[in-house]
């Protein structure tokens, strides 16, 4: 019996770590929040399971530019919580999540962000998506009974951040008005509600204030 | 046991079919991991629950509701046979999953740029947020990226964010 148990455990490990696993970065994502719930390829991308396929971890100064953008956002907000950035391929999405051991991360498809910039005609589109994901980390993940509220709070921070970074209000809402849905979905509010919330965040940044109900622990940040 | 094998074969069929469709690499890997998880779950259930308690129990209940011990030799033989079958089945699943994974890796390597198989950087010690950039590491990380395909994301210089036209 002991011999069989040992065999079983080794096989279980083998399933979890296939032969080529060392060539890729695999993470376990818990409670992921997707950006808009849309996909340029299939219409709707649902994280569904708990695992994602990641090509590599992005680092500051690399060709993706995403960690640098996130660092700039954090500097602007004085938000010092570490966020790891991973590059996904062919996901046509961008999402924030808490990984194993509480690691905060943002997973982004760089080509997807390029497409969004191109189709909306403004480079602020990609920044608004990244800011939305940072907004999820500011807003927190576990205090919501409604995912729609969670998305709106992230949108609020997207608007707030874009104003702080220098975007005008129309640039801040351009992405959501282009890609958002006309009606609420199970995961995301309609684009008018989202644009209104982004504008609210943008306006609060102009006034130099923010809505404390939009974040989990603003005083700690 | 035949029921288990049949169920898993059905699972194989659906999984293989879905991979043949136009799923992304991420979706394919996710499906594979879900399948492997199901295999492991079935194995665990069989090993810890079904075989000792249902298929080869040490006690059976007689017509008066009393627990009656089964001949230990019979129990041992039964469990040995069941575990042998279970491990044989598990070995086949293991082979199947790894073949499937190799198929995904090959497919994704063809479809995507070589950045997919670049190794992740080693975790650096100290305060990562403020640590200096290791330029050698960056070169290693980005060597396989198709520069024409992926454009660097950066914060625009103008409020409207349009690219300046020259």
UniProtKB/TrEMBL annotation, chain A:
Residues 1-21 form the signal peptide. Keywords: Signal. This is Uncharacterized protein. It comes from Chitinophaga rhizophila.
TrEMBL record, chain B:
Residues 1-20 form the signal peptide. Residues 129-138 have a biased composition (Acidic residues). The keyword Signal applies. Residues 119-138 are annotated as: Disordered. Keywords: Signal. The keyword Signal applies. It comes from the Bacteria. This is Secreted protein.
